Amino acid sequence: MIYLKTDEEIELMYAANQLVGKTLAEVSKHIAPGVSTLQLDKIAEEFIRDNGAVPAFLGYGGYPNSICTSVNEQIVHGIPSSTSILKEGDEIAVDCGTVLNGFVGDSAYTFCVGEVSPEVRKLMKTTKESLYVGIQHALEGHRLGDISNAVQTYCESRGYSVVRELVGHGIGHVMHEEPEVPNYGRRGCGPLLRSGMCICIEPMINMGSKNVSFEKDGWTVRTKDRKCSAHYEHCIAIRPDGPQILSSFKFLEEVLGDKAI
Ligand code: MF3
Ligand code: CO
Fold first, then answer.
1. Ligand 1 center to residue 235 CA distance, Å?
2. Measuring from atom 3 of ligand 1, which residue has the nearest CA?
3. How many Å apart are CA 135 and CA 153, to the nearest integer?
4. Closest ligand 1 atom to 169 CA
5. What ligand is nearest to the CA atom of residue 56?
6. Looking at CB atoms within 10 Å, which of 91, 141, 204, 261 has the fewest?
7. How many angstroms is it from 78 CA to the middle of ligand 1?
8. Domains of the chain
């Protein structure tokens, strides 16, 4: 069942997602060599609570923290830890969710730790661009596969691979609603896109092969070949006049300045 949201509900989704954007900005201020991923988690949790919201990830399916921190070969769902210390040249995907006024916000961004290699930077840039290419296809009357295919084609034509085991999702009162939003697929296939649909599009793109491994901690997903992976996520609403991005990278890009990807 795909729940279509009213304008009022989309307004509340917007508020929850804007707070995620501001939380990612707060976290981004502290991303530097020598910082632990658990420190970043604490900063995010405090910021979310100070703003009258609750971390959406904490306790979700038993997840132990407020953000996911996935470094280098980690794709998604990396668990923050005091022993995971960022070092110069790493890239770190930070995924964050909030619950505000009964609605969930969910967004992710991959950051550089100091200077990353040109190869990794290119992976990050392409992954981020593919997110916006996907969003451009989130049009009323089109099909979900149009979004999926656009992301896949954009990344594969640039020599990268698309993770299959993890997908984006519908979102609303809960973090994961129907439909699933794969980053691969066929044009003209899948559910019809309708005004009022709220979905998270979240390309997870690998430098090497698409194959993944699941770590023994029960959460962390990494590349099998241990090459780098990047992850960006926006929550969007499909509206009569086109897609509306409910989350925002504006706040973190203000912090990053000319260091933004
Ligand atoms: N953005 C991720 C997702 O859409 C975050 C979920 S992490 C979890 O699945 F721990 F909360 F599950
Ligand atoms: Co998500």
1. 13
2. 168
3. 14
4. 4
5. 1
6. 141
7. 10
8. 7-259 (3.90.230.10)
Pocket of ligand 1 (CB under 6 A): 57, 60-61, 63, 68, 77, 95, 106, 108, 169, 200, 233
Per-residue pLDDT of the chain (261 residues; tens, 9 = 90+): 999 999 999 999 999 999 999 999 999 999 999 999 999 999 999 999 999 999 999 999 999 999 999 999 999 999 999 999 999 999 999 999 999 999 999 999 999 999 999 999 999 999 999 999 999 999 999 999 999 999 999 999 999 999 999 999 999 999 999 999 999 999 999 999 999 999 999 999 999 999 999 999 999 999 999 999 999 999 999 999 999 999 999 999 999 998 898
Record the tokens describing residue 107, joined without a space: 């967004």
Q: Judge residue 229's burial from the number of C-beta atoms within 10 Å of its C-beta, 0-12 exposed, 13-18 middle, 19 or more buried.
A: buried
Q: Which amino acid is at 249?
A: F
Give just the sign of the alpha carbon dihedral 228, 234, 238, 241.
negative
